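step=predict obj=Unplaced genomic scaffold SPHSTscaffold_129, whole genome shotgun sequence n=520
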Amino acid sequence: MAKAGSHEAWNTLLPDAKAELHSTAYLEVCEELGETEFQNLSLHERELASFFAWAGFCMHKELNTVKGGYTAMSKHWEMIGIDGPIMLPNKDAAAAITGGVEPEKPSQGGAVKATSLAGGIFNHKDDKKGEQDNIRYAFEATFGFPLNFPDTNNTWYQSHCQAAAELLVHLNFYRDYFNIMKDRKESRTHNHMEKNLQMVLEDLPTISKLCVLALFLLSISYPYMRIVRGEDSENLNVLDMGPTHQTVEVHMEKIIANPAVLLSSGAQFAEATLDGNLWVRSEVMYAIWKLAPNLLHLESLTVAFFTGALETWRRFTAEYAPGGLIATASPSLHAIAWMPTTNDVNEGALGSRRVVRRSLPKATELTLNAYQRYRWNKTGIFIRSLSETKLKFLRKRAHFLQSLQLQKKVRIAQANYGKSIVKNKWAQDAVRLEKKQKQAKVLSAVIPITSLSILEKSALKVPDLDLQLSWHRQFNLGLAKKTALRNKSSKVAELRKAIEQLNDNADMEKILAEYSPSGV
């Protein structure tokens, strides 16, 4: 009532307003009482109650660090004024470029593009596509052991770095294998994707970037993974990882200051790897050292990558900063708030859920959740210890929950949501159609300028030029888009080009008859 102002004012309020004031007052009372009780606790109890720590999972930090390093390395080419890796347009983009049209999306190139293409060809997620067993058998026949190319088509930690290492170690094999692929076909030709990968494996800037990814894999990623996912890692507490993460930072700083730690042909694993242990794949280092004399910018790219990786690493390990909550918390608090170093348990649960669903394809999410909780929590043992009275209560509760048909309501809500999306798209289609019809109506009334002499005499303004160019674009798809023509002079030049192409077209009369209001 005090919030309302007076008893009389309270009586004039609507029920919703009264409920809101009551809720606010209740929360204030709870907060006041809670603060009083909190202050009555011992220092240790207050510390326990107020300790809320957040720590990102370690493999996510490594993943984002690689992304940060790769981004910095990609920008390095422009910074030093050198042409970078060859661009690899997809089939549609290549067709557009051939036709003189700018593709909708910019083409990509570089190491990750190369590893993505290699994964799509050598280990496609669809076992009916790509080389699959063919390359496995060819690899085993050549080297005496089978190959399973890193799965870059799926979300898999370190797969692109591993693919880079694999391509470097057996680079000549993969280059030669393209001839086998081509000659095995009736057409004796590569498809567009295969041509792109074949080109990129001969491109030295791309190979340089592959080398840097492999260097980071062997010096940082693999050793770090041995710590956070290796033997006894299930007992590690992510809150205790501050010193380890500081070691990673120091090691990257060392490589930035002296890249010869990695790039020198006499580099020692004890100095080059994070944990000082043997190279996971020493043959990768031998391959890089052999290629290095022909890779003129390998050292500067390595420094750029590790610099970007270090900046990203610091950003993603900020929760361990000296003087921060985690760093200043006591070991006992760390132990009480124990968390694993990786998210493997949750990600493993998602995988096991897919396996269970194969056996129970019609089971609802609630049923699957109950099934897995029953197994993991060993609920059966607990149930067998209950009395008949408690079991009777549980059965009644289960029947009540089933009667609510919660999952059915979710399915219906999902179906209704799908319908609403479709309706929205229909509405958008109607708006686009109306806009297109209006534009067609406007263009049908345009009297086109079909002569350069008339164009020179005409004092066209920018809107008039846009309209003339839109008329020409109806049948001339090679003209530049409106957004590419930034000023009047560029529009005039493009219209002059359009008129010349129209006059050179053998079907000019048909075009004018179809698109002109008077058939001029």
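step=describe
The first strand starts at residue 87 and ends at 88.
step=end
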